[in-house]
């Protein structure tokens, strides 16, 4: 959150009042606030990026939720619950996840956490042909390190040194961007949300770029 947004939220929590956009009057509200983050807020408080007073307003009952890779025993139950929910949202029949598929998913590091699992299940429900989801319905990068970021094999300086002295910079950058996007899509098993996260893009930005390059 930006410093301005932090200040506004602090006023809401402190006074229980909000001011609608375009309004000049304050309204009393009685709400319960649940806040979630994957950032280390205490570290951000120390670095001046997050307000200390807001942090202590929010940290009333802190709950630490470990990433999916640290609670693999939950994957089977999550698969059944998510399949039922996704099938209901898409108005398609739900499917069971086979034991083999659960074992395959349980061996994966899930850098995208539960959202990545949900995306994989949605893809499998759409493309899977059997009444039960099978291991082959889940294309995964087996053995891929979860913390590895795309494009870190060579430095920018090493890449620049390999380029010719004369080139079309716009064309070169477009080709590089397209190549990185294709690589991210392949490494994520076609799950755009995960590919966008690897590239540091929003899902809508990635969708725009894919549309531009497919035209």
Can you characterise this structure?
There is one protein chain. This protein is mainly alpha-helical and about 220 residues long. The protein has three domains: about 55 residues, no CATH class; about 70 residues, Helicase, Ruva Protein, domain 3; about 60 residues, Orthogonal Bundle (Arc Repressor Mutant, subunit A), CATH 1.10.10.60. A two-stranded antiparallel sheet has the order 1-2. It has a two-stranded parallel ribbon with strand order 3-4. The longest helix is centred in the C-terminal third of the chain and has 19 residues. It is extended.
Structure described in brief:
The protein has 215 residues and is mainly alpha-helical.
Helix content: 40-55%
What structural category characterises the helix and strand content?
Answer: mainly alpha
Point out poorly predicted stretches.
143-153
Given the C-alpha coordinates, what overall shape results? extended
The end-to-end distance, rounded to whole angstroms, is 36 Å
Count of separate structural domains: 3
Let me know the number of strands.
Answer: 4
Based on the model shown, name its key terms:
single chain; 215 residues; mainly alpha; Helicase, Ruva Protein, domain 3; Arc Repressor Mutant, subunit A; 3 domains; two-stranded antiparallel ribbon; two-stranded parallel sheet; 10 helices; extended
